[in-house]
Amino acid sequence: MMKQFCWVSQRAALPDGWDLRLRGWRLDAAEPDPAAERREHFPILCDYQGVSAAQLAGLRQHRQRMLLLGVDGGLERAGLLAARFADALPGDVGLDELDQRAERVLLQAAAMPRQRTAGPLLLDLFHRDAQIDGRWLGLHPREFALLWHLAELPGSRVTRARLLADVWRLNHDPETNRVEVHVSRLRAKLAGAGLGQLVVTDPRGGYRLDSGDRGDSALPLANPHNALDEYVRRGDIAPIKERQGDDNSLHKQ
User: Which residue in 31, 72, 125, 193 has a CA-CA distance of 20 to 30 Å to 119?
Assistant: First the structure.
């Protein structure tokens, strides 16, 4: 597997102490795009002191492969781990340790997860079905595959062409309504569970999952310190302990 990583920071240079290229990694110059159709499993090194809260919030759905660097408070690191970031490390972490932690994230991110969530639904790849409150919906395999792929990028548009490629293994449009028919059947089963609005038709074409979570959007708050706290709260996890003073703020003024 190619050892490749992304770097997110408002600072220009990647510090030598965090530069995985010195350990044989390749840097992907493109910043991760939450709406990108291509699947990326590369770990993301994020300069915690050099990124805005809005930028961090915009990458929320990538947090399980994000290593936040420069988090020097132990309680703050614990809070970020509770928020399901892949890792949170102090600024003086050794390059050899960072290499091993990034490789662990790479392997975990590349592995196919057995379960995903779609709003209140739990999707199980082994059963190829979804359940709510312990009750299975009885999805057809293609209905499950549609929902699984939409849940991969919640809130983001998945085009009809991408669904044909991923669910039907077709790299051309057969000019039939098979996608629309299966989406309609899926919606009918979701409606029976009170989730008829979970799968939304995007005005630009394609479909997206609307779980009611608006945590992916940039936060219109002026103070990055407060913005990060609000971002974590929107993730429905235990909030990070209130930080005191300029030395512990996310983005120094």
Answer: 31
**Span 137-189, pLDDT tens digits:** 999 999 999 999 899 888 889 999 989 988 888 888 888 899 999 999 999 99
* Unique residue bearing structure tokens 């240079």: 13
**DSSP string covering 202-217:** -TTSSEEE--S--TTS
pLDDT at 207: 95
Rg of the Cα atoms in the chain: 20
- In sequence order, the 6+-apart residues with CB closer than 8 A to the CB of 193 are 121, 132, 135, 137
CATH code that applies to domain 4-112+222-248? 3.40.50
How far apart, in whole angstroms, are the C-alpha atoms of residue 199 and residue 130? Answer: 14
Comparing CA positions, the residue from 197, 222, 219 lying closest to residue 209 is 197
d(CA 199, CA 196): 7
CATH-assigned architecture of domain 120-209: Orthogonal Bundle (1.10)
67, β-bridge pairs:
45, 87
**How far, in whole angstroms, is CA 135 from its chain's centroid?**
27
